[in-house]
Fold this sequence. Notes:
This protein is of the alpha/beta class. The protein has helices at 28-42, 63-71, 87-100, 129-132, 141-155, 159-173, 187-192, 220-223, 256-267, 284-293, 302-305, 324-327, 335-347, and strands at residues 10-21, 52-55, 77-79, 106-113, 195-197, 200-201, 210-219, 231-240, 276-279, 360-367, 372-379.
Amino acid sequence: MSMDSMRGKSAIVGMATAGVGEAPGFSAMELLGQAAVKAVNEAGLKMQDIDGVFAATSSHAFPTMSVVEYLGLKPRFFDGTNVGGSSFEMHLLQATLALEAGLCDAALICYGSNQRTAGGRLVSMSEPQWHETPYKPRHPITAYGLATSRHMAEFGTTREDLADVALAARGWANLNPEAFARGPLSKDEVLSARMISDPLTKSDCCLVTDGAAACVLVRADRAKDLPGKPVYFMGAGGANYHRSIVAMPDLTTTAAAESGPRAMEMAGVSQKDIDVVMLYDAFTINTILFLEDLGFCPKGEGGRFVRDGRIAPGGELAVNTNGGGLSCVHPGMYGLFLIAEAVAQIRGEAGERQQDNCNIALCHGNGGTLSSQCTAILGSEAAL
């Protein structure tokens, strides 16, 4: 099976979210179930039609088994690959491979978390603790602060540049009624916000919310017979260099520099073809790093690239049009919400934030501490 043979072979025919922001009284699995039921219904299918399950969660050691039990499924194929927040971009590729191989006919990708109302804090075990424990870090923030400091030292990136990322995210969130953090936000407010891990302030850090998302994929030939407007899988790629931040080869270059080109080659597109860019913005530095590593600007130019509203509403490049993890939703793992917004944009269902003639969207997921990088490209029928 060649790389380009996967282009356009599957399509998302159902997409849904649930409990975005705060959902008191619901468990993570209950929220996941709500999103899954909505996605399957939108696809015009029944739950018993689902014979492929792909899941990763931060609250279940055996996610696919838990999902299968809760939803009453009997899948022929399942995969619980967990590489952090980028898992779901990789699941798109895995589901497409399984569908194309005839291992399943309808694949469900799902995630749910009640991190906010369950009292969770933004703390991760994504680092092998024996490396850093003597220094008492607060991961993942300490790790991202380290990468930010290095980018500043090497390329002259400023806290004002980081603030421009946060302001752009809030600008998009203010156009999204589902976004958790809405309202005015000034650059002075971002810069004067409480310092969490120098040089990152509270405003440089993602939200801690509840939320669930799910999508249903089928083979492309079947998608045209279902009620939902199909959004086609065009390409995906993954790369991973490390787990612990202390093992990252270069703090200013992520494995997105490999996952992005792989996805674009499979999809047969380049940066100029992308209409919407959805980046996993757990911290403001992420957006800058991924814009560089995915080739939207040269290495070291990310800070200058985001200045003056370039990625904000009305700017040159539509980035994180839902408000991102910084202002829309971030329930522990954010990667499936990137896909949800890409689907909304390609279907023309994004309301005030809708981009004109949106046919191709890039979703880039990040897992761990700049560790696992997975890029996926989705398109409309016109893009095939």
